[in-house]
Amino acid sequence: MTTYLACMGTRPEIIKMAPIYRTLKAQGEDVQVLHTGQHEEVAQALYKFFDMDPDFQIQLRRQSPSLSNLTAELLQGIDGVIDKVKPDVMLVQGDTASALVGAMAGYYHDVPVAHVEAGLRTGQHEPFPEEKNRELIGRLASWHFPPTPQAADNLRREGIAAQQIFEVGNTVIDAALWVKTQMDQDGASDALPADVRRFMQDHAASRLMLVTAHRRENWGRPIQLIASAVGVLLRLHPELVVVWPLHPNPSVRADIQNAFSVLGAECRQRLCLTDPLEYPALISLLAHAHFCLTDSGGIQEEASAFKCPVLITRDSTERQELVDAGGAALVGTDPHRIVEQASALLNDPWAYRAMQVQESPFGDGHSAQRIADVLTCARSTH
Ligand code: UDP
């Protein structure tokens, strides 16, 4: 039996690691879960939902908000857990500080690192520091699991040996399809919190735009611009309703709420500002949404599994595949561009259909099994 240490700390890492955890466990492997505490507010509900109780939790003190402080605390915490578990393989996902430091700590202990969702690149400074985190993990890992041919090409261009690269799709699609199947069996509306459920019942015949904005570079003025574009869209399109789960940061929430203070009563009742949604609720809305307006990487990927067009409120994306396939458009935070593109999706059925990709470029729901197969085979020949 192989002992894996799966190191994770943020919402997207937990969601994208869960299918691998479940698959390896089902095969009888020993998978120890290390929660780094990076996203404490939403993490515990996700662990519970995926039946993936952390075996170890780091208590971050965060004496300063700096990345160096976070990195130092994580390194010390992860180091101690590796000493205890003595894993055969370290599993990290994506581009967070938890993933980079997990890979570093594994490397320092001479534990081979498997990097899930490897090879995504914008080729630019943004997203900072995630772009560089992901690249650095590429220097440390022994197994690289890029989700797409483009991501695999990026790794080959950076000199990673071909026999270490395994293009497997993205486990986010495994998770999304699994949750959707569960909800189809159990009743999807049960997943929604009471305020959103009522809102959706009151507007059952309307067209839903799901909005999220969490990226730090969009805080402040950019988020106010996004909110003002949403206000214009509500005025222009009486058939439109908007659900926007707000980021927990109080100043981000205040910016958004202020931007809507000038909205007339009729438009206001077609807008639902709510708390961050639990994962099944988010998937339930995404599966029903006419389209979404988001800066989230994970939502770009999940939307493609439900043929839901995406307007991306960024200037570049490390998930260009969906843009190339026609399922997403980069609209930045300029209200004119947002209003123009969203109005096309609402007014023009051809434009809408052209943005409904038939097949997700990010995976088919079987990525975790492919990853488990590669790792099991590598360990059995070890
Ligand atoms: N998500 C969620 N509730 C929300 C917003 C997002 O469960 O209110 C999920 C979403 O389904 C996706 C993940 O969080 O799987 C994306 O995380 P986030 O947007 O924080 O990070 P990113 O993907 O941009 O790294």
| Proportion of residues in β-strands | 5-15%
Side-by-side strand order of the widest sheet? 3-2-1-4-5-6
Mean pLDDT: 96
Tally of alpha and pi helices: 17
H-E order: EHEHEHEHEHEHHHEHEHHEHEHEHEHHH
**So what's the oligomer here?**
single chain
Helicity range: 40-55%
The whole-angstrom Rg is 21 Å
Low-confidence stretches: none
Question: Which molecules are bound besides the chains?
Answer: uridine-5'-diphosphate
The tally of strands reads 12
Number of domains: 2
Overall spatial form:
globular
CATH C-level name of the largest domain:
Alpha Beta
**The named CATH superfamily of the largest domain:** Glycogen Phosphorylase B
CATH topology of the largest domain: Rossmann fold
Give the second-level CATH assignment, the architecture of the largest domain.
3-Layer(aba) Sandwich
Span from first to last CA?
12 Å
Largest sheet: 6 strands, parallel
Structural classification = alpha/beta
Notes on the structure:
There is one protein chain. The mean pLDDT is 96. The chain is an alpha/beta fold and 382 residues long. Helix 1 links the parallel strand 1 (3-8) and strand 2. 49% of the residues are buried. Helix 3 (67-85) crosses helix 4 and helix 9 packs parallel to helix 15 (335-347). Helix content is 49%, strand content 14%. The protein has two domains: 3-170 and 364-380, Rossmann fold; 175-354, 3-Layer(aba) Sandwich (Rossmann fold), CATH 3.40.50.2000. It is built from 17 helices and twelve strands. The strands form two sheets. The protein has a six-stranded parallel sheet with strand order 3-2-1-4-5-6, with helices on both faces. The structure holds uridine-5'-diphosphate. Uridine-5'-diphosphate binds next to helix 1, helix 12 and helix 13. Uridine-5'-diphosphate (UDP) binds next to helix 1, helix 12 and helix 13.
